[in-house]
Amino acid sequence: MTAAPSTTKIRVLIAKPGLDGHDRGAKVVARALRDGGCEVIYTGIRQTPEMIAEAALQEDVDVVGLSILSGAHLELFPRVVDELKKRGLDDVLLFCGGIIPEEDTGPLEALGFQAIFRPGTNTQDIVKFVYEHAKK
Amino acid sequence: MDDLVERFLSGDRRALARIITRVENEAPAGRDYLRHLFPHSGKTHTIGITGGAGSGKSTLTSALAAEYRRRGKTIGIVAVDPSSPFTHGAILGDRIRMQEHALDPGVYVRSMASRGALGGLAPTIDDVVAVLDAFGFDYVLIETVGAGQDEVEIAGTALTTVLVNNPGTGDDIQALKAGIIEIADILVVNKADHPGADILVSQLQALLSLAPAGQRRPPILKTTATRGEGLDRLADAIEEHREHLEKSGELARSRAVDARHQVLTIARQILLERIRQSTSEADLQALVLRVAARELDPHSAAEELTAALPH
What is the pTM of this model? Predict the structure, then answer.
């Protein structure tokens, strides 16, 4: 028997760590990735780093996108990355977006974030980034 | 074969998640995993939660899981949301309502996209449920996409089907119609704190009283899932249904019916794939254009297509 073609999909977790409740950006990105053909798991606002990592594990996502507007990214993102690593999820593609000052680019790249999307980003660039970098 | 099966059988949730992905992607590797794990399945009680969009399925599923956790049971949840018919992408948002279990090692939640399947579930749902079953959860809860009147596939996947209704969503003729209401083993009136809940309960009771004598009448329960109310009775009713299935011999019959359906569905896919491989895309396109031009009827065209299959 010849196998039916595999129907692999890119699975993306869009998560909002921290306490800000501004989820419009996260929803716009989730929608753009949906329209780009991805399966997007959206977990809502106010997620702890543990919750995000646990969702990434259970959902076996290829990509994790973090959205934050509170300014706490340098406190929270390293903890998310730690929690992911603790669970052996060191091969997921990481990107982030929100209000993130230029001078924080270096530290975030060092943490493993391969892209930072700031206000004004064309959503198609995000879709393109995910398709170019997600391992399948 | 890698070490995933071994890790899975020792209770590694990462291995569980990875195997589900491979099974869901219908990769040949997924089938190999399934072959190894299937003999370990068949111990879990599977519960389907279905009902209209916004009826509170996710909240009820989460609240039911909380009730089972109080009873010391472990839970696997698979929640299906629709895929786009155009881009095949999906937003899977059922986890939002299940946050209370986010860090509970006794609960595993997996979101699935419907990937073009009709009937409220996903093409590989039975395989994914078998994997969760084999992992050893006491209960597997299956939440369908928002169902309308005709999404009845869940009855073939779950042993107990819970249909979630809401007050204020139509008169009793809606409930009299054929379709989804016929597959309910338990009827839940969720959002019971809203006006009209008691009226809906009595309408459903009146409707069920029209059923032929001797037919099992599903219990009707009121829940307010957001407050966790009525979940103890729902869990009890599921237990009663499970005992009924076992004692009446219906469990064995139901498993056989479901297995038949699964095998035939897969066989149909294999045949379709063989047809696609025995005919070139150009020949297929020429054939369908003749149908589109009304030169040939679709039945004759399909026979022409299948006649090309090696016997």
Answer: 0.90
